[in-house]
Amino acid sequence: MATMQKMLNINAPAQKVFEHLTDSTCLPRLRSLVTGTLIALLLSGLALALGPAPRASAMAENGGDGHVYVLNNDLSGSNSITAFSREEDGSLTLLGTTSIGGLGSLAAFGLINAGTQGSLILTHDEGTRLFAVDAGSDQISVVDVHNGHLSLSGIFSSGGAGPVSLSYRDGLLYVLNAANASTRAANVAGFHVDDEGTLHPIAGATRPLSAPNPNPAQVLIDPSGQFLVVTEKNTNLIDVYHIHSDGSLSGPTTFPSVGAVPFGMAFNLASPRHELIVADAAGGPSGTGAATAYRLAHGNVQLINGPVPDFQIAPCWMVITRDGHFAYTSDTDSHTISGYSIDEDGTISLLSPNGVTASTPSDTFPLEEGLSNGSHFLYVLDSRILLMPPGPATIGGYQIHHDGSLTSVVDTTQIVLPFTTIGLAAE
Fold first, then answer.
1. Predicted confidence (pLDDT) per residue in 287-303, tens digit
2. May I ask the CATH class of domain 2-426?
């Protein structure tokens, strides 16, 4: 770690840039001093000053029972994904890092104002694929996966500016182009994915959001495959699009979020009511956040209950276990994970009265989450991008017990990732 810290020492001018990037919803210390475009240029220069992005390192373990993948969001050279094998006890072993073309970005993700969910997604149809955003080059990388080993299938235009979130179902892929670092307007765009992984733009599947630049957080297809949902942070809206039989879209129809600053979301796949739980990055007591449970009924967003405060700062990312019993949100500025119990009627309640189900390392800011296939393990991307100077990211891993409690199973000190790392997917 001493060598890594030495590599991450930055010169005074570059450090001043980070000192003034503050005041975001989920990354409260970041402040917008310059325009998003200038930030992107300065951060790209910083990446060059730091030299090649540090690759992941992990302790060796024996055996394997799944995988975890992270999107390194490289600001120079080529974007890349690092893969780990998941052992039976949930611990991780480094497999390697694969170039996926394209280019990463920080400003495009709105890291000057909160971030996004779903930049890297894992799918299983005839085979296993990863879809990754290349936010700095307005592209999507399609990556074939064979037992944790990756091969690039192709790189395609995202159909907009600054892609930040992806959702896939039954051969349809939709991307959220946030345009956070662009003068262009944000949109959603849809693609047919053929057997070879080629993306084919769908006529009528590129649609605007509620406003040109609403700082959107995530795009997500509902379990029926009939609707597409987008959360917008700046407008406090939830957008719903109708997906037609050919993949084209109509809408959006907008619904006011009951909670403040709707961010990450997940559908409860075990629920017949198409339950949607949304992390609310703000709106709780004393500057904390919450979570809100909704049902999506014929394209209408209806409240089940909430907001339910978690008494933590900046709950932003959201996952729901496969059995539909628990939801977890990462609390970026409290360095914690909050768990919620999901009752049979869809209502949610905190697992712990103080909202703390697990803690991440005190010098990290937990971002994206991912669940193993059976939801026995929860993995969290722990970022150090806000440190002065910024430090390497790592991955936290937790066993999920029958009561929803979490026990750490990953030694975070043994995993080192680029400070720019932004996305995580697990199986």
1. 999 999 999 999 999 99
2. mainly beta
